[in-house]
Amino acid sequence: MTGMRYTRALPILGFDYFPHNDWKINMVFPLNVSVAYKVTSHFSMEAALRTVLSRQRVPKNTHPDKGLVAYRNWGAELGLDYAWNQFFSANAHIGESLAGRLRVGDKNDRHRTHYRIRDGLYWGAYLSIAF
Question: What pTM value is reported for the model?
Answer without folding.
Answer: 0.72
